[in-house]
Amino acid sequence: MMVSNLMNKSERIAHYHLPGLFEFYELYEIFLPLWRRHREWFYSWCDIASIYGAPADCLWGGGRTNSGYADERDVLALVTEYGISARLTFSNSLLKKEHLLDKKCNRLCQIFSHAATHSGAIVHSDLLLDYLKITYPSLYLVSSTTKVLTDFDDFVAELERDDFSYVVPDFRLNKSFDMLETLVQPQKDKVEFLCNECCDFGCMERKTCYGNVSRRNLGENAVEHKCSAPGGGGGYRFSLAKKNPGFIGIMDIQDTYLPMGFSNFKIEGRGLGSAVVLEFLLYYMTKPEYQLEVREALYLDSMLDLF
Fold first, then answer.
1. What is the DSSP letter of 257?
2. What are the tens digits of pLDDT across the range 87-102?
3. How confident is the model at residue 305 (pLDDT cuts 50, 70, 90)?
4. At 30, which helix (H) or strand (E)?
């Protein structure tokens, strides 16, 4: 693919948005000191812009059923120490006015909206968006991939909304280079690509799946969605995600997306285990010659159960 207006790769940094703010607190508690202390182990062309997630039993949660049990003040202290933005995943699509009064979610907003590092919220519901803008104006807002924005015109319309600092399109727009190249730089700066989705490229059930998670987070009786797409019952496999037509690998980031003017890349994985998320950290951020050192540091730490 010919890319116009190529930029020198060294002029732009890839900003990663990592999964598991609450879910993988113990993993990051060990990984982040390695990231700081041994910066030579990791690629110089990337950084950690944010970590996203939500605690267990979070009414406003969506996208994945929440399973994070870390204390919110410990979480905030960790990301503040490393200058990383915390993002609360509030992507429930089925919220009603009465849900806005939820004490737990409001308490989270109160705590994180006063963080030294700028915190944000990932949202789907316009009802929640309007509430957060009024009640917690210091939180920046991210348009959730749970909206399944597969139509490029719809995606551009979302980028044009002043409400959002970032917009995560459906992964099936990842390689629409002819259309992506038409975006102007302020629009490109707001695009956040979902890199490692394993869902079948032709799946037509993503909205149904996300809606099911929203209902379950609201405590409604909902049978867990069983995906009928090819491979839908086999669980996440990074090896399969790498074969997905929408997959964005490190060479894609360096050779295509950064020169085109895109900088933000989201890694999914909140519903997975620490061992799988570690593989993402190794692949996307760690130089091959130092991956063993990172693995050993985490595997040998008796405080962390990777399995």
1. I
2. 999 999 999 999 999 9
3. low
4. helix 25-37
Rounded distance between C-alpha atoms, residue 20 and residue 268, angstroms: 9
Is-contact 58 105, C-beta < 8 A? yes
Using CA atoms, how far apart are residues 257 and 9, in angstroms rounded to an integer?
Answer: 10
CB 144 within 8 A of CB 122: yes
**How would you class 107 by CB atoms within 10 Å of its CB: exposed for 0-12, middle for 13-18, buried for 19 or more?**
exposed
Give the residue, 98 or 269, on which the prediction is more confident: 98
Q: Cβ(45)–Cβ(7) under 8 Å? A: no
Q: Is 79 helix (H, G, I), strand (E, B) or coil?
A: helix
- Read off the tokens for 262: 């895109």
d(CA 205, CA 218): 20
DSSP reduced 3-state for 214: helix
pLDDT in tens, 142-179: 999 999 999 999 999 999 999 999 999 999 999 999 99
What's the pTM value of the predicted model, to 2 decimals? 0.90
Alpha-carbon distance values, 202 to 134, 171, 194, 198, 206 (Å):
38, 11, 16, 11, 10
C-alpha neighbours within 13 Å on the C-beta side of residue 41: 19
Q: What is the predicted pLDDT for the residue at 193?
A: 98
CA distance 290 to 254: 19
* 108 contact partners, CB below 8 Å, separation of at least 6: 55, 58, 72, 88
Rounded Cα–Cα distance for residues 261 and 150 (Å): 21
**Average pLDDT, rounded, for the chain:** 88
Residue listed under structure tokens 């949202």: 123
Number of H helices, E strands in the chain: 13, 8
Q: Spell out the residues 6+ positions from residue 151 whose beta carbon is closer than 8 angstroms to its own.
A: none
Nearest-Å Rg of the Cα atoms of the chain is: 19
Cα 267 to Cα 73, 157, 194, 281: the distances in Å are 24, 24, 6, 9
